[in-house]
User: What shape does this take?
Amino acid sequence: MTAFLTAWALALSYVSATPFETIAIGALAESIVPALTTSPLYFINESRVSWSNVIPGVVTGVYLVWLNYRGTKESMRFQTGVLLAMLVCTVLFTGVAFTNGEISNLKPLFATEGALWAVAPASIISVLVVVPFFLAGFDAIPQAAEEAGLKMDPQKLGTAIVSTIIAGIVFYILIILSVSMSMPWQESSKLHMPTAEVFRVAFGYEWVTKLVLITALLGLISTLNGLYIASTRLIFAMGRGGLLPHWFAGVHPVHHTPRNAILFVGAISLIGPFIGKAAMSPIVNSASLAFTSVFTVTCLAAIRLRRTAPSMKRPYRVSRATLYTGAVVSAMLVCLMTFPQSPGQLSALEFTAIGVWMLLGLLAYAWARKSGDLSHEERVYMILGEEEGL
Assistant: This one.
């Protein structure tokens, strides 16, 4: 049961992020080409929903669903092209910022007045709440590599995953520095879209503003594609292992892709644009809590396996200190998002959304177990494979 709840929480962090991406794609499309903006269809919590922000997200989502439906190789080729374009754009606009910006614009480092020892932790904690959401996705690497037929040594695979996390951290640092150096943050924080608009306001470069928006759009598209890969393969594996109804284990007879899982996740992602920006903050916070909880359980499980299965094959090893550090840091983040009066405490809506998702998962799990289409031995093999004796 613990393993199922952990996997289902991980599925929440993946699946819930897909409508976030389709919503953001529509919003960015309007910002890049304002002339395409149409009249509002309706409002949700003062957030406008119109055809001009619905259609781009839906069209992109449908195209990526179709791409993943046809196979991982096509999806990865597309991903590589988008990533290269995004890196070129990033080098251009960060170069403009570092060339024309001023380090003095970074000061003061924190917005709240007071002693640094008191202000700094509270500010950092507020940001840490959403960090897991924006660093997620690295664990899609082994899934994509396996299905694409790539041969990769386990040691190199582990190194690739860690390198991806480091690359993501460096990328965000560069973005933050480029925006902060371009103009004083006291002024940029008042802009509608600071990351892009600082280049127009500070330097008068309209083309750089458009370039930043295009880079962000490419980033959203690549992230959505990666989320489709990660979420659908996880749900497929759970269906194959008897943890979810077997329908989720359906495979396309020609393309050999998890078609039902792809259709399930794709349908959820396409709901997002019809809800609009009002859903973005709850999605980020809910996914962050789910992902951080999975971190905690994973580290604790690895620590336990070191004691209960010392002879287990471990092609990629990490130090015991790393595991304990990961468990402690992850548990602290979970506490920051759940404890009352914490700077990062989630809202009632976000807790409710997580609760509903977990309840639906438990119902699906009970249904799958009741069907009895797999024996205990078959289920263990489907989940653990060659390590079934552990």
